[in-house]
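Retro notes (design track)

What went well: tokenization of the new backbones is finally stable.
What didn't: we kept losing track of which sequence belonged to which structure.
Fix going forward: every design gets posted as structure first, then sequence, in one message. First example under the new rule, 113 residues:
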């Protein structure tokens, strides 16, 4: 299995998993960019946000719902946080299994780099 995030879903690659359900898995980013940096991914392989068509709009919505729940568990809801979906090379995507970044625990800059 070539996709590293599919390997995490399958339990074939170690990850610090903070939440999982029948549709999604959330785990700490290996290269955190904020005090809290968690990736929320669908169990199903979808290359990126651009490939999340009408059939799986609900999948992306579920990732956002999981992010809110994990943010509460992490104690960052009140202070706020940032959710990021990178698409393609110019969007900064390096892993081609759709993932929602949950970043919090510090003030985010704008515009993003
Ligand atoms: P992006 O650049 O949006 O594709 O983000 C990919 C993120 O995935 C990046 O922040 C680093 C993280 N990452 C890559 N490989 C692994 C891994 O094997 N384990 C974990 N926990 N995170 C990974």
């Amino acid at each position: 299995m070539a996709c590293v995030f599919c390997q995490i879903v399958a339990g074939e690659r170690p990850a610090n998993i903070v939440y999982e359900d029948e549709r999604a898995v959330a785990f700490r980013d290996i290269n955190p960019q904020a005090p809290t940096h968690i990736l929320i991914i669908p169990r199903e392989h979808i290359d990126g946000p651009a490939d999340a068509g009408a059939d799986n709009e609900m999948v992306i919505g579920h990732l956002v719902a999981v992010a809110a729940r994990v943010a509460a568990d992490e104690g960052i809801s009140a202070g706020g946080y940032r959710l990021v979906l990178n698409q393609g090379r110019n969007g900064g995507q390096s892993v081609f299994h759709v993932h929602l970044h949950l970043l919090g625990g510090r003030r985010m800059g704008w515009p993003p780099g």
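Added context from the reviewer: Residues 4, 13, 15, 27-31, 39, 86, 92-95 surround 2'-deoxyguanosine-5'-monophosphate (CB under 6 Å).
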